[in-house]
């Protein structure tokens, strides 16, 4: 039997041990599995208490089971759910009982969602939104993912594709039936008007996407600077826990340390890098090389300095660099005029801040500045429709084909009609309706097992 025709099962809740664990089964054998383990088939879509037994009739657990016959289920197939006590031994016994049934196997990552997609329960943009929702770490990521899961982009794409097909039909009617007396005049003019409107709508969505793709991944902020200026102390302050070793000896940090932060709903990856200096130590030299590389790739660099290293120059790169002058508690800077925020000016590309990483002075102002930078950086990302590179590229292809169709229609209606077909094809790929087998594996293998 082909793997896609086999029945699959997986743990669909959190790791055990837990109070309750949910085992989901999907496929043709789901009903038989339910009958074997419970001795009966419960009523449809009603939670039913049952004693689960293995193939030898030995009791496994006192559980709650649910039965969802196809096609009214999450995957579009027969689905059974076992809500069991979340002990490892209970879960292992349920898995063993399911594996003993012919043509039932453990699910691969994302296989439940892939079957839902293949059975028309959701389109590819909604599947991507589901994956984003599962992996969302902040509230803003959650809200963006939920928009995708609700089909915001998919609904738009279906509407655009339908209207492109209508415009294409007008042009092709003019081509095929130009000699027929009952064909209305001005079909091409109507098609041109519709195409222009469609192109403008898609272009507007692309222009408004801002940094929505990056909201999924988060803002990368690197803390860089000479050795022993307080970089590790600062990352501990921002993380509000001990994530880096703090030592008075220079060169303590040899590798890149990363910590994930949630700043007012914005996901931020904070990087503590090795002190930038010339050294003969090969290990420290490699740390310095990595520090320079990560700082060059970061969206924002916090260049930390103090009285001893005040003349040290921040790295040159395309991204913004903030100079953070540390150790004001030691009298390094006169903080008159800095105010409670510690900010000297509000140009978010070139900001100077005075802080005491050890005592916490100015840390609140630095955090507020980081939140404002993130808000400007992501722009309207949370409400944007386009959240992945794949989506953006396919919309760009559709918009370019519509633009070319308008340019070519004066040279030949057949050329314009071909570009319209290309635009409809790109939107079909966006939804997962056509020619997407090559990307399905890549998308669904990123899901967790049980989804």
Element layout with pairings:
Elements: E1 7-11, E2 18-26, H1 30-38, E3 48-53, E4 59-68, E5 79-86, H2 88-99, E6 104-106, H3 111-118, H4 124-135, H5 139-149, H6 152-176, H7 187-207, H8 212-217, E7 219-224, H9 231-239, E8 257-263, E9 266-272, H10 282-297, E10 300-305, E11 321-325, E12 352-354, H11 363-378, H12 389-408, H13 413-431, H14 437-444
Parallel strand pairs: 1-6, 7-9, 7-10, 10-11, 11-12
Antiparallel strand pairs: 1-2, 2-5, 3-4, 4-5, 8-9
Helix pairs in contact: 4-5, 6-7, 6-13, 7-12, 12-13
Computed CA radius of gyration, to the nearest angstrom: 29 Å
Mean pLDDT: 81
Q: Report the major sheet.
A: 6 strands, mixed
Note the gap between the termini.
23 Å
How many helices in DSSP terms? Answer: 14
Class by SSE composition: alpha/beta
**Strand percentage:** 15-25%
Helix content: 40-55%
* Elements, N to C (H/E): EEHEEEHEHHHHHHEHEEHEEEHHHH
Q: Identify the overall geometry.
A: flat
Structural summary, described in words:
The protein is α/β, with parallel strands linked by helices. It contains 14 helices and 12 strands. A 6-stranded mixed beta sheet has the order 3-4-5-2-1-6. Helix 4 packs antiparallel against helix 5, helix 6 packs antiparallel against helix 7 and helix 6 packs antiparallel against helix 13. The longest helix has 25 residues. The two termini are 23 Å apart.
Looking at this protein, list some descriptive labels.
12 strands; alpha/beta; flat; six-stranded mixed beta sheet; 451 residues; 14 helices; 43% helix
């Amino acid at each position: 039997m082909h793997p896609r025709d086999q029945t699959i099962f997986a743990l669909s809740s959190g790791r055990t041990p837990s109070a309750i664990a949910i085992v989901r089964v999907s496929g043709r054998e789901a009903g038989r599995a339910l009958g074997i383990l419970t001795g009966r088939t419960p009523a449809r879509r009603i939670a039913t208490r049952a004693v689960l037994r293995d193939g030898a009739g030995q009791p496994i657990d006192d559980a709650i089971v649910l039965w969802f016959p196809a096609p009214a289920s999450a995957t579009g197939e027969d689905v059974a759910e076992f809500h069991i006590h979340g002990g490892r031994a209970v879960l292992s016994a349920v898995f063993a009982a399911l594996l003993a049934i012919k043509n039932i196997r453990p699910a691969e990552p994302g296989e439940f969602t892939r079957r839902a997609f293949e059975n028309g329960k959701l389109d590819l943009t909604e599947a991507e939104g589901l994956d984003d929702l599962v992996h969302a770490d902040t509230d803003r990521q959650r809200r963006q993912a939920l928009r995708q899961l609700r089909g915001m982009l998919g609904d738009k794409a279906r509407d655009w594709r339908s209207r492109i097909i209508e415009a294409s039909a007008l042009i092709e009617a003019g081509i095929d039936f130009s000699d027929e007396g009952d064909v209305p005049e001005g079909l091409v003019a109507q098609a041109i008007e519709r195409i222009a409107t469609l192109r403008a709508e898609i272009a507007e969505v692309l222009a408004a996407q801002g940094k929505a793709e990056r909201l999924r991944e988060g803002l990368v902020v690197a803390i860089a600077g000479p050795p022993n200026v307080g970089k590790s102390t600062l990352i501990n302050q921002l993380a509000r826990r001990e994530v880096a070793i703090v030592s008075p000896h220079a060169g303590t940090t040899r590798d890149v340390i990363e910590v994930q932060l949630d700043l007012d709903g914005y996901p931020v990856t904070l990087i503590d890098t090795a002190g930038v200096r010339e050294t003969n130590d090969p290990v420290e030299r490699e740390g310095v090389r990595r520090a320079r590389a990560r700082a060059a790739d970061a969206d924002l660099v916090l260049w930390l300095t103090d009285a001893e290293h005040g003349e040290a120059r921040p790295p040159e790169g395309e991204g913004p660099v903030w100079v953070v002058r540390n150790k004001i508690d030691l009298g390094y800077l006169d903080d008159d005029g800095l105010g409670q925020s510690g900010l000297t000016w509000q140009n978010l590309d070139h900001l100077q801040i005075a802080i005491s990483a050890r005592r916490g002075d100015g840390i609140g102002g630095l955090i507020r500045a980081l939140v404002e930078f993130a808000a400007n950086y992501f722009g309207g990302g949370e409400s944007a429709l386009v959240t992945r590179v794949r989506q953006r590229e396919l919309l760009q292809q559709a918009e370019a084909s519509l633009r070319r169709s308008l340019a070519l229609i004066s040279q030949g209606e057949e050329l314009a009609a071909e570009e319209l077909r290309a635009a409809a094809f790109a939107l079909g790929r966006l939804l997962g309706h056509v020619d997407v087998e090559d990307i399905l594996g890549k998308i669904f293998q990123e899901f967790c097992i049980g989804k």
